[in-house]
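Q: Structure for this?
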Amino acid sequence: MNTVSALGTDVSSQSRTMQLALAGLLGLFVVGFLGFSHMEVVHNAAHDYRHSMAFPCH
Amino acid sequence: MSIFRNVVFIAAISGLLAGVVLAALQTYATVPLILKAETYENAGGHEHVAAPTAGTEATAPAAGTEAPAAQAAAPVEEEAEAWAPADGAERFAYSALANIVSGVAFALILVAVSEFAGGIANWRQGVFWGFAGFAVFTLAPGLGLPPELPAMPAADLGARQIWWTLTVVATAAGLALIAFKQSLPLAILGVALIVAPHIVGAPQPESHESPIPADLHHSFVVAVTITNLVFWVVLGAVAGFVRNRFMSEPAPSLNGRLA
């Protein structure tokens, strides 16, 4: 398996997993906030975006 | 944190590009249909937070009868309601911003997950990753919960959000089992995971009766699905291209496992 050194050479497998998980979670958090937040202001600002991305809206 | 930084770098470039493409496509393909649907909404179909505006009234079929009442009510509503961008340039700007930010966020997810699988080796492999993202985030949830226009009836919002999320997770897990575990039982489990949310079924409204004409909704479903397909393909392809050019370590060959 060559995956450990896929993006940067001398990183431990555990640290690599942590960093990738962190990046993925950051993305999930932002998508969740934009698409799912019940805050009125967020809903109104991203209204057309939510409909156009087929997020459940209203 | 070099890996984290590299992932953010790839995601920023690919997400920015794909988000700009998506914002442009939406402006021509989906937003006009949303504005058209709002004219039915403001004509008394269903309560909604968006205040009636000059732009929608001008095209409203019932503008002659409804507009004066709406205008009279507007100042009162605005005091009670949360802030919303003004129609026109401001509304477009916030939609474009949301698209670009979400483009980068989806890219973060795509790049992070693909790195767990060894990394996207080139733009062609990226296209297949993009197809997977489209299947997970648009196609699968869209089967049970088709893209909605304003004023359309829908089940409880919380229940739909939960179904949407579980469907995305199950579809992603199912695709991963099929693509990366070279095992027949796990592939069968993967198919079962993809099918399961649709057997459970998405929360549906009590009645599908809607002021929105069926052909308008159909056009919207097609427009949303196709614009999202282009978004995901661009996102995956650019991510694959960028990762290949800008990173010091090449992605390992997947030995024909994917693309």
